[in-house]
Amino acid sequence: MHSAGTARWLLERGHDDRDLVVAALAHDIAKGHQRRVDRVAYVLASHAGLAPRLANADSPHALRRAVARSLAHASAGASILAAAGTSPRIVELTRLHHAPPAGDPVLALLQQADAAN
Questions:
Q1: What is the DSSP letter of 14?
Q2: Distance CA 49, CA 106 (A)
Q3: How far apart are CA 75 and CA 34, in angstroms?
Q4: How far is it, in rounded angstroms, from Cα 82 to Cα 76?
Q5: What is the pLDDT of residues 15-42, one digit of tens each?
Q6: CB 67 within 8 A of CB 41
Q7: Under 8 Å between Cβ of 6 and 111
Q8: In whole angstroms, what is the distance from residue 32 CA to residue 101 CA?
Q9: pTM above 0.70, yes or no
Q10: Which residues of 32-71 are buried (b: 16+ CB within 10 A; e: fewer)?
Q11: What are the sequence ranges of the domains in the chain?
Q12: Under a CB-based contact definition with an 8 Å cutoff, are residues 7 and 25 in contact?
């Protein structure tokens, strides 16, 4: 599982900050089920700048719904975690895990671990 691998990557390198590890485990909470074809389509469409045009949360096509979930998963995941009473820092790390780290070394670590898995 990707999230467990992301947390393991951090722990194996000595990064045991609780908020960071929990964010690693929870950062993709809103993606839902994702087939390999969904991931490939999202990555290719994103690199081509077409993901927003392909995404459609209400489409009868599973691939278009999956791309829509991928596009919105960071903010949707942050909302889920906030509603569950998760710490504001974990919510922030989840919401920003695809944004430029802007000098936040903990966010940069989460992104590095996410990319490695």
A1: T
A2: 28
A3: 17
A4: 10
A5: 999 999 999 999 999 998 889 999 999 9
A6: yes
A7: no
A8: 25
A9: yes
A10: eebeeebeebbeebeeeeebeebbeeeeeeebbbbbbbbb
A11: 2-116
A12: yes
Question: What tens digit of pLDDT does each residue of 74-107 get?
Answer: 999 999 999 999 999 999 999 999 999 999 999 9
Structure-token match 């490939």, residue found: 40
Q: Using CA atoms, how far apart are residues 109 and 115, in angstroms rounded to an integer?
A: 10
Residue found by looking up tokens 């839902």 in the block? 32
Angle at 91 between CA 90 and CA 93, to 5 degrees: 65
Residue tagged 């996410």 (tokens): 114
